[in-house]
Amino acid sequence: MSAPVWEDGGWTPLPVLSGRVTADVCVVGLGGSGLAAVDELLGRGVSVLGIDAGPVGGGAAGRNGGFLLAGLADPYHRVVASLGRAAASSLHALTLAEMDRMTAMTPDAVRRVGSLRVEDEPAGLADCAEQAAALRADGFAVEEYDGVEGRGLLFPDDGAMQPLRRCRSLALQAVSRSARLHEHSPALDIGPGRVTTPDGVVDCAAVVVAVDGRLEQLLPELVGRLRTVRLQMLGTAPDPVVSVPRPVYLRGGFEYWQQLPDGRLAVGGFRDVGGDAEETSSADPAEPVQAAIEQLLRTRIGSTAPVTHRWAASVGYTATGLPFLGEVRDRVWAAGGYSGTGNVVGALCGRAAAARAVGGRHPATAFEGLA
After folding, report:
1. d(C-alpha 299, C-alpha 296), whole Å
2. Cβ distance 294 to 313 under 8 Å?
């Protein structure tokens, strides 16, 4: 049951890296951000080799809630307060553009059905009102919502996706464009001009480390700036009675759920219920979080469908809620710390890291130095 509900089979594994090879850039991590970096580098005409410690999308990129959300981890009005209106507006617009790109690149994995933020408490609803006012002031789409899911906000530009399918599709596209990608090839040593794995060595001009959870373990310089947290989920058999047209998040994202096109439900959250035990690099589901998620499934969502999947993922958090992007070592660029909302922001940071690794620019390099 530890496999995510997104696993639909049919994946042909990529080879393990073996021997000494050369590339312009080595990308470490083949999740959403790493594969976005690979795509960016291919578009800039450089040779790319990518490695992952596990399979493509085997980390949080293929084990998350499948939400496609504009913006950063914090609601828009708080981003405005911390970064200023011009920077917040620019970054929000970048996420919307990246969502359009993701939809175009993997249309079989993305559904632009909008998303809901619902709140039960007066403080949460007041926060929704502030968020809506700030978004409207800068011309971004948002609507008040009052429905069976609860009261809050509808974001019509957002959507849902099948995250593991998206990663695998991006990997196959990259391979078809001459990228060399290798699974089950963990980076043992990362330095200027070289990445070493158990069975191979990559000689390269630059390295992009696009890993969210456990990034500070791979690059110890980031200890104290990022921390790894476990996020847990469960999935059900198809439920023909319940209808959830679009992804929903409650309590500012501490609970979230969506319904897949075949009727199955993917439900997660309650990191706060787990407390300090969720500050772990373990990706195994555990109590009491699983019990709390199942209670949400049975009471709030109202589903009686049997639970078929339970899983977890390691993600990176920063103290500010802003992503990390920067050169950690000479010619070693890293991106991570998406604070639980990495599907879109991660792709942008991967592209920005790739651009910087080859001496170029990208609009998302505005993330550099924020965390």
Report:
1. 5
2. no
Rounded CA separation 71/89 (Å): 9
pLDDT over 70, % of the chain:
100
Structure tokens at 45: 């005409």
Task: Indicate whether 114 pLDDT > 60.
Answer: yes
3-state secondary structure of 305: coil
Number of CB atoms found within 10 A of residue 368's CB: 19
Please choose, from the candidates 173, 57, 76, 58, the residue with its C-alpha nearest in 3D space to the C-alpha of residue 131.
76
Domains of the chain, with CATH numbers? 112-161+230-315 (3.30.9.10)
Where does the chain show beta strands of DSSP type E?
Answer: 19-28, 48-51, 67-68, 110-111, 115-119, 143-147, 150-155, 159-161, 180-182, 189-191, 194-196, 200-210, 226-236, 248-250, 255-259, 265-269, 307-318, 324-329, 332-336
End-to-end, the C-alpha distance of the chain in Å comes to 35
Between CA 310 and CA 323 the distance in angstroms is: 27
Read off the pTM.
0.97
Closest CA to 96 of 65, 60, 128, 72: 72
Q: Answer whether residue 297 shows pLDDT above 80.
A: yes
